[in-house]
Amino acid sequence: MSWIVPAIAPPCAEAFRRALQRQAELTKPPGSLGRLEQLAARLAAMQASWRPSLDRVWISVFAADHGVAEEGVSAYPPSVTREMGRVFVAGGAAISVLARQIGAVLEVVDAGVAEPLASPGIIDARAGSGTANFTRAAAMSASQRDRALAAGAEAVMRARRYGAQLFIGGEMGIANTTSAAALACALLGVGPDRLAGPGTGLDGAGIRHKCEVIETALRLHGEALCDPADILRRLGGFEIAALTGAYLTAAAASIPVLVDGFIATVAALLAVRMQPACADWFLYAHRSAEPGHRLVLEALGGEPLIDLGMRLGEGSGAAVAVPLLRAACALHNEMATFAEAGVSGG
Ligand SMILES: O=C(O)c1ccc[n+]([C@@H]2O[C@H](COP(=O)([O-])O)[C@@H](O)[C@H]2O)c1
Ligand SMILES: Cc1cc2nc[nH]c2cc1C
Description:
By secondary structure, this protein is α/β, with parallel strands linked by helices. It has helices at 13-25, 35-47, 79-90, 94-102, 142-162, 176-188, 204-221, 228-235, 238-252, 262-274, 293-300, 316-334, 338-341; strands spanning 57-64, 105-112, 122-124, 166-172, 257-259, 282-284. Nicotinate mononucleotide binds next to strand 4, helix 6 and helix 10.
C-alpha cells in the first residue's frame, strides 16, 4: 500500500481527567447530565483544552459511482449520484440546509462519479470513473484506492487550515449500501443477511437479491479478503475510501470526527482495522434505520447519540447531532461550580 497510514497519538489524558473533575464540581448531582458529561470530557481531551468548543465545524461530502449498481441493487438509478452533486452545491440538499443551520463549512468532493461533476464549487479529486462491478472483478486498483484515500486526507488538510474543531464526512453514491454491506461482511466475517438492508428503499425481494449479489462477490474474492486495505480495494467505493482516509488523517491531526450513518461507519471500521489508535477520535452521531448499522456500531463499541430513523447519508445524521455536542460543551464551559454559586453539598 503506497498511501501511508498516519501515526496517531491518543487524546490528552490530563485534559480528560481535569474535565471529569470539573464535571463533578458543577452545580448538579454527579452524573445527572448523563452522557453529555462524558462527551464534554472526551471533546476536552481531543481538543487538549479545558473549554472544548465546536464553533468551527467542517463537512466534506464525497460522491462516487459504483459498478455494482448494474446488478439492480438500489431503488434509484446511478444518475442520481451526479444529479445530487449539483443539488448539494446549489444549496437544496438536506446536508446543504443542515450545514447552513449549524453554521458549518460544506464542501463537495467528486471522488469518482462516472461522469465528472466538474461544476463550480465541486472539488475534483477523482480516483476513477466509478468503480468496477465487484461481482466480476476488484472494485478498484491499488493506485485508485490510494488516490481515494488521499482525497480524504486532502479534505482534512483543508479542514485543518480552516481551524476545524470537528470533522464530518458525508457520502453520496447510489448502490453504496451494497458496497458497505459487502465490506462489513468481509471485515466482520458475517453473512449478508445480517448486513444488507433496504438502502434507498428496496422491498423484501430486492433485499434478497442484494444478499445474493454480495454472496457472489464474497465467493469471487474469497480468501483474498483478509487485509483491510485489500478488502477496501476489492469491495469498496471511492467515496468510502475517501472517508477512511479522511478519518485516519483527522485522528492524526487531532481533529475529532463525528461519524454519520451506515456507510460512514463502515468506513470508520476500515480505518480502525488499518490503525486501531484512530478509534479514540471518533464519536458516533446516530443509529441509521439501515438494519446492518447496529452490528457495525457494536463491532466498534460505538454508542450513537441519536436514533431518529434517518437513513439519508450525506453527513445529515451527524449534522443533526452537532447541537447536542454544542450543548455538552456549553454546559461544561458555562455552568457554575458549587463553590462559585455557594450551593451546599458539592
Ligand atoms: O447513511 C445511511 O445510513 C444510509 C442508509 C441508506 C442509504 N443511504 C444513502 O443512499 C444511497 C445508497 O443507497 P442504495 O440503496 O443506493 O445503496 C447513498 O447515497 C447513501 O448516502 C445512506
Ligand atoms: C434523492 C437521493 C438523495 C440522497 N442523498 C444521499 N443518498 C441519496 C439517495 C437519493 C435517491
